[in-house]
Amino acid sequence: MKVVTVLYPGGEAAKTTPELWNCTEHALGLRPMLESTGHTLVSMSDTGAALDRELVDADVMVATPFWPAYITKERIAQSPKLKLLLTAGVGSDHFDLAAAAARKITVAEITGSNVVSVAEHAVMQVLALVRNFIPSYQQVVAGGWDIATLAARSHDLEDKTVGIVGMGRIGQRFAARLKPFDVQVHYYDNRRLTTAEEQVLGARYLSLDALTESSDVISIHAPLTPGTDRLFDRARLARMKRGSYLVNTARGRIVDTMALVDALKSGHLAGYAGDVWYPQPAAADHPWRTMPNHAMTPHLSGTTLEAQKRIAEGVQDCVQRFLAGTPIERDYLIVDGGRVVSPSYSYAYGSG
Ligand code: NAI
Q: Of 23, 68, 127, 150, which shows the fewest CB atoms inside 10 Å?
């Protein structure tokens, strides 16, 4: 059996940090497990021609959202032995799910593995924007002391309205972590929570349009699907409150690249933060690197060392079960038996 992993390069950090399981060098801890049982592991960071060559006779392919290998329907067609596509993390949009379903290839991800990691990052980025942290930090490093300029864009989060788009595992954890800040939480999801769940989280359900128009801060936590691709397009960004903030730790393509730049340049939005880009890795001249009033990071919120351990253990479990011919954890399945089975994706693919 041949397993191919495409992960981010570990470089010098991999030499000193064995816990960096999500990098090419440490390959999610799969090497000893596979090689001791006569299987083959190819671990690489190439997402182009070298990957094409390795996929031709691969049985299992593991990709990571942090350094995505986009497995298109053409690549699936050129890889006749592929039976399992695994995401080392959460969010399987780098796989063509419809093409995988048509070929009866199983797609799975490590559900829940990094949901706290992302929720914490999103709270941090909301605060970074609302409190005007990045320019304040930059001023300190540059030797300045101009408080008026900084304070003119600094607010309390208390009493603001925070809208959550996508109230799944991360959205709910984000809402729970906001509770002590005494904000009004609104949410939109195409699957409404129960009233008991809404009460526990203190979250009120609104239509997407009502949420867009009423929120001081919006945080996106929905998967990238045909239904969310550029959900925040020019028209939706224009409907957001003037001076509001947008945080996106879900997927870069949910927000229209140039419409966002224009909304920040005109001052309609007061700030944007997140860690997801399209494509990834983001080019050195990606317009989001230089747009005004942003607090972006590279895609790292879900790859803390704690998350990496959970992701590696989950991937090992899936590969072991696949080799043993036993079913993969039900919660992990995105595509199974020729259908999109994950409730978070099936709404958009219509095959749940
Ligand atoms: P989840 O599956 O638990 O929740 C997703 C929620 O989005 C579900 O409640 C679903 O009903 C909802 N949803 C689906 N389509 C929607 C639509 N059109 N409008 C509104 N809501 C919609 O997934 P989880 O664990 O909360 O992760 C969410 C996403 O966050 C992932 O799919 C992934 O893209 C992203 N993510 C990012 C990470 C990072 O490092 N930045 C790490 C982990 C996940």
A: 127
Task: Kindly report the pTM of this predicted structure.
Answer: 0.98
Which of 114, 132, 293, 308 is catalytic? The answer is 114
Q: Is the pLDDT of residue 350 over 80?
A: no
Is 251 a residue of the active site?
yes
Pocket test of ligand 1: the residue of 22, 118, 231 to mutate, having most ligand atoms within 8 Å of its CB, is: 118
Does the structure show a pLDDT above 50 at 134?
yes
Decide if pLDDT at 260 tops 90: yes
Question: How far is residue 336 CA from its own chain's centroid?
Answer: 22
Angle between helices 115-130 and 169-178 (to 10 degrees): 50
Other residues' Cβ atoms within 10 Å of the Cβ of residue 216: 20
**pLDDT over 60 (residue 352):** no
Question: Of 344, 345, 346, 349, which is best to mutate to test ligand 1, by the most ligand atoms within 8 angstroms of its C-beta?
Answer: 344
280 is a catalytic site residue: yes
Ligand 1 geometric centre to CA of 220 (Å): 8
- For ligand 1, atom 37, the nearest C-alpha belongs to 250
Q: What angle do CA 108, 111, 114 make, to 5 degrees?
A: 130
